[in-house]
Amino acid sequence: MAKKTTGRTPRAKTDTATIHDVQLQRGTGGELHQIAEDDMPLLTTAQGGPVADDQNSLRVGPRGPLVVDDFHFREKIFHFDHERIPERVVHARGYGAHGFFETYDSLAAYTKADLFQRSGERTPVFVRFSTVAGNKGSADLARDVRGFAVKFYTKEGNWDLVGNNIPVFFIQDAIKFPDLIHAAKQEPDRAFPQAQTAHDNFWDFISLTPESMHMVMWIMSDRAIPRSLRFMEGFGVHTFRFVNAKDESTFVKFHWKPKLGLQSVAWNEAVKINGADPDFHRRDLWQSIQSGNYPEWELQVQLFDQDFADSFDFDVLDPTKIIPEEMLPPQPIGRLVLDRMPDNFFAETEQVAFMTQNVPPGIDFSNDPLLQGRNFSYLDTQLKRLGGPNFTHLPINAPKCPFAHFQQDGHMAMRNPVGRVNYQPNSFGEGPRESPTRGFRHFPAEEQGAKARLRPESFADHYSQARQFYVSQTPPEQRHMAAALTFELSKVETPAIRERMVSHLLNIDETLAATVAQKLGFQSMPKPADAAVPTRQDLEPSPALSIVERGPRRFEGRKLGILITDGVDAKLLKGLTAAVSKEKAVCELIAPKVGGVTASDGKWINANHMIDGGPSVLFDAIVVLTSADAIEDLVKEATARDFVADAFQHCKFIGYDPSAMPLLEKAGIAYALDEGVIVLPGEAGLSSFVSELGKLRVWGREPSVKLGKA
Ligand code: HDE
């Protein structure tokens, strides 16, 4: 006989027999259908045992203790207790996607790597983007380097190109990596600040490590706050080797170039995005792939031989140096398209194990000491993170080509060799054998020298390329770098560290140093830091280093935020959204209330956001379309005023219909209208407005906004 139930778990009864009466299932059109219990998959334990009641644990009487026979409860809680694995010690926060790499033309002259042999060949890939310093739950818009790790599942095994969105690194020797990362991450006694380099320990280490100065210029630039993962470059950083079938080696540096051009956010915008949408980058990647706007990059290579390396001003083995693109133009060799999100974040993005030492025949290492140190590190880290040596059995890490070896057993072994023989050589003629012709052979580079702990003289110039980066930036980008340095050092509590940093800046650019020193309130200038190489070279500027110079010039792939109210001109709105989608960009509608608005033609328009949840920092440009009746209420909304004022401050393009002018006035920008604030539909029409948006920012506005003149 059924006992009395508590009534708290409507779909479960506490007696023994049937549990679910009905369930709801969503149809293809989103509608809900009822499905009968018999048509639903049966819930089981991990051992496959059918579960009768998943709502109540087993107890003695309605108010009595739980009992140990409850194997279902025990298994469920046990598994939950073990759901986490250690987060990555660096690059903990990441987001991944699947796609393919397509080779343009055969590269057989340079490399025998199978994936580069045939024009049009497609190789499946998995890419994981990441921030470096923050923990797994930190915000996307931290000022930080972005990881850009690509796993190519080639027909000759996996090739992992584990790169960053910045082509140089902080240190020249892997032995300094733990120190660098300790200093960059949260301070150990107080456990803050998270995902930020604006603290004493980081700048203490950096200011004592002159080799980091070039990288410091990059992370203080807008490169460290990308607008989207889709709008950033990637770099293999180190010099690698291509090796062809004749065993000839060519040095190679890898570059990923985004099809939609480069774009970053303003620092004030980054700070606000982190609050408004800490998942800004991952949401953007998710949305663009799910909507069929597949992000794309071109793989380009800088190829060079030993003679070039010998004639170059710097050492090509030094990972704190670039080879300027103007000096050695990168050649396009293929494209990467990301077209599928993982089915499960943990199984794929979290468990993916990148290792720099995963290279196929035809790709090899150089003697870059950082690369060689990395080749040592990545295997260890996967063992720790994934808990055993069989992480290659996980589908995301397993090669997609045939493979065979005698590695066996260990935790979670899923694919042990079958048959009697698990060794070789054997006389049974069983099992795989190595092949001197098809197998990987390391490039037989000749090496000599005394064994010693040392740093080569050729790595000693720490300032010339740092300066080259700075002088290659446009004026707004240079201003951002000065502001970033000032902000970061303003958070440093120890005056000596600030001074030491400024003493390095003096070796890079005197004006930059003076600006930062003045903003930090220095009474006098410190002496320039002692430099290992006393004469800094004045290298030619490299425009390729500027984001503004490499901007997209098109609004494609960007997002327009349109603030609408009741009475919005339906025709104007329709025309605008059509012009935007023609440009392959996206519109999102923001309304004063949740749900939407009633347009001028009496029809209801659904909005994507309520104004409080859709601040203008989430968009690349904004438009305000309102009506004479609604504007009075709109100007009373503080968030509507911020919507406009922030967009103006962040130098974005703003479109408005004449009835929105009172909001511009209230936001304090009506007196500073410039060429980036455009009345709609305007004489030139909506498509010309949208093509104007391709300029992305009105940087000329910035100085007046900064000084509060706007
Ligand atoms: Fe890494 N790095 N790294 N790194 N790195 C890791 O491996 C390491 C370096 C990079 O999305 C770890 O699986 C050392 C340079 C990316 O899963 C670890 C040194 C570059 C990712 C590790 C470096 C990178 C990592 C932590 C100094 C750019 C994320 C978790 C010699 C070229 C991959 C893991 C992903 C991850 C070690 C320096 C890029 C501990 C010792 C330079 C993109 O193995």
UniProtKB/TrEMBL annotation:
Q: Which residues form the active site?
A: H91, N164
One Pfam family recorded for the sequence: Catalase-rel
InterPro entries in alphabetical order: Catalase, Catalase_AS, Catalase_clade2, Catalase_clade2_helical, Catalase_core, Catalase_haem_BS, Catalase_immune_responsive, Catalase_large_C
Q: Name one GO biological process term.
A: response to oxidative stress
Gene Ontology molecular function, alphabetical:
catalase activity; heme binding; metal ion binding
Its catalytic activity?
2 H2O2 = O2 + 2 H2O
Function according to Swiss-Prot or TrEMBL: Decomposes hydrogen peroxide into water and oxygen; serves to protect cells from the toxic effects of hydrogen peroxide.
What this protein is called in its record is Catalase
Please name the source species.
Metarhizobium album
